[in-house]
């Protein structure tokens, strides 16, 4: 592993992945991406693991792509689909619990929503902020947000790109637990212990069944998002927004 993404087992059946790239505020830095991929590869090789919990540090879960990554997409050097981050939790054979105890922005929020179970914090900020920078959403956002949050709220979040506190999302009727920040990780671990008591083969079979429809819908959604990116990233205003608004 590496210093910014750690994997530990408080119980041999429970894998806990912690995102802690303090130097880059849990953006998708190279170290964070490589650490995530390594951790989930190690979990796949662990025959005892039955559930994964992923969380961030302090008031941050994951804050999405770096400015350099966005400019690389704009310049045609990479696509968001080059790395399987957007479906990392989905493709994990065992259930993944995303404890979004801290702010989750852009691709960071979308990655979290691909988990099987999600917990949010009242105080934290959640935003599908792609359109803030002038480009259309990616990472499977146009697929997963409507499925997990409903079309009306998903459309509002994607079109406005504004941030929502967890408490506001609870008032809007989201189907996830929304707790005090200090309660999110303990609650996720309690949930993990519940799942860890179930037979491994039954957990994997049920996850496979519950994710079938999403896995069928996702490829067409990703293809559509990539086509939109070819147009929206080519607009001069998009570069200006990425260069001037990033981090604000």
Task: Give a brief rundown of this model.
With about 250 residues, the chain is an alpha/beta fold. The protein has helices at about 30-45, 65-75, 90, 105-115, 140-150, 150-160, 165-170, 180-195, 200-210, 210-230, 235-245; strands spanning about 5-10, 15-20, 50-55, 60, 95-100, 105, 115-120, 125, 165, 180. The protein has one domain (about 5-180): Alpha-Beta Complex (2-enoyl-CoA Hydratase, Chain A, domain 1).
User: What fraction of the residues are assigned to beta strands by DSSP?
Assistant: 15-25%
Task: Provide the residue-averaged pLDDT.
Answer: 95
User: How would you characterize the largest beta sheet?
Assistant: 6 strands, mixed
Number of helices: 11
The level of helicity is 40-55%
Instruction: Provide the spatial order of strands within the biggest beta sheet.
Output: 1-2-3-5-7-10
Highest CATH level, the class: Alpha Beta
End-to-end separation in angstroms reads 31 Å
Note the overall shape: globular
**Could you name the CATH topology?**
2-enoyl-CoA Hydratase, Chain A, domain 1
What structural category arises from helix and sheet content?
alpha/beta
Which consecutive residue ranges, at least 5 long each, have pLDDT under 50? none
Q: Give the oligomer, counting copies of the same chain as homo and different chains as hetero.
A: single chain
Order of helix and strand elements from N to C terminus: EEHEEHHEEHEEHHEHEHHHH
Radius of gyration: 17 Å
